Amino acid sequence: MNTIKQINFENRTVLLREDLNVPFDKNGILSDVRISAALSTIRFLIEKRAKVIVMSHLGRPKGEDPDFSLQIVADRLGQYLQKTVPVFSLSDTPPALEAGGVAMLENVRFYKGESENDPGLAKRYAALCDIFMMDAFAVSHRDHASTTGVIAQSPVVCMGPLFAKELAALNQALECPKRPWVAVVGGGKVSSKLEVLLNLIDKVDTLVVGGAIANTFLKAKGIFVGQSRIEPELVATAERILQTAQDLNKTIWLPEDVIVADNMDAANVEHKLVTQISASDQIFDIGPQSQKSLSKLLLDAKTIVWNGPMGVFEKPQFSAGTEALSQAIADSTAYSIAGGGETLAAIEQFKIQEKVSVLSTGGGAFLQLLEAKPLPALVALERHDSIDSTVDVAP
Ligand code: 3PG
User: Is 308 in the pocket of ligand 1 (CB under 6 A)?
Assistant: First the structure.
């Protein structure tokens, strides 16, 4: 792969794939973490006097749909860069850019063949540029025309610095972690994290299982969980994971006390030991004793990988567990990596952005790497017949 230090960007058109798939509603952008993460790459290219065309997807539109236009993202980018960022469609003539100018291609999911990785579409993307830079780790798990297809069609490709930084950080944690290594896996569904749990169990020292995922594990341990959300078909799998952990001499951390209520909107909540749960209870957060033991575990850790909250942290009555987790990660001297949409939202809510060693922009891509599965865009970059490696790419 080309390193970006080897490439002369001056006056050359760079098609820059970013993941600017930000959460938004009718009032605008809800979190611009992905936009600010991409800024240093864009500024680097501006400094190198490149002509920059940023490309991204936004949401999952079925064809062209003005509700999913990247105009809101281009406007925000323009505010950060203090310049106008025109948006153009693939059927338009691209805007004539000066060296250091930035434009944005309209949402790639508007074009037929994007998700099917149509080579004709990939060729049209490649025709826009002299150099293709893949900087979107967060969408590297998709085999689409704008992620892998365009790489095969472009004469000069390179990995962008944000992609390289995220990949290096994750590889450092996964391949040569300082121990004790604690992985925190929370969130709503065992099924969406199963492969991650299976892959991590023989690598980490402690696997913290929280959120609704923990309910299925508590059930597997024979604990009565009342009306709490579980995945009955995965109880046996959870039992096997618990057994594997015991055989490997690894620890699976589960909450010893919890916050329960009749429903998620109830104002009346109760603190109970997991052995005291009654028939109408639903678990929505971990309790104070669990927060304490989790905090101690994280303060003693040397490496922490975090994906998924401990409870329904969006509701104040169920936010204490995820807040305690965030604070413990912030206070820990461990090398910490966090990723995933809900995790980044929690990090913003509890304002610990500066305290996490590496924030991954990836959701699905982050999980796929934790599952030890190949990332198609990375494979495509490695297959491209360019030269050298990409490790020293930080601008
Ligand atoms: C994400 O948010 O995980 C990425 O932007 C990928 O989006 P997708 O799941 O719609 O492909």
Answer: no
| Gap from CA of 363 to ligand 1 centroid (Å) | 7
Between these two residues, 390 and 201, which has the higher pLDDT value? 201
Tell me the per-residue pLDDT of 330-354, one tens digit each, with 9 for 90 and over. Answer: 999 999 999 998 999 999 999 999 9
What are the helix (H) ranges across 31-183? Answer: 33-47, 71-81, 119-126, 150-153, 161-175
Is the CB of 23 within 6 Å of ligand 1?
A: no
Q: Is the pLDDT of residue 217 over 50?
A: yes
Least Cα distance to 221 among 273, 275, 294 occurs for 275
3-state percent breakdown (helix, strand, coil) of the chain, nearest 5: 40, 15, 40
- Quick: pLDDT tens for 43-60: 999 999 999 999 999 999
CA 88 from chain center: how many Å?
Answer: 28
Distance from C-alpha of 389 to C-alpha of 382, rounded to nearest angstrom: 9
Which pLDDT does position 386 carry in this prediction? 63
Return the structure tokens found at 4.
């970006």
Evaluate whether 189 touches 212 at the Cβ level (below 8 Å). yes
- Report CA(20)–ligand 1 centroid distance (Å): 10
- Between the CA of 33 and the centroid of ligand 1 the distance, in Å, is 14
Q: Does the pLDDT at position 103 exceed 70?
A: yes
Report the distance separating Cα 332 and Cα 226, nearest Å. Answer: 35
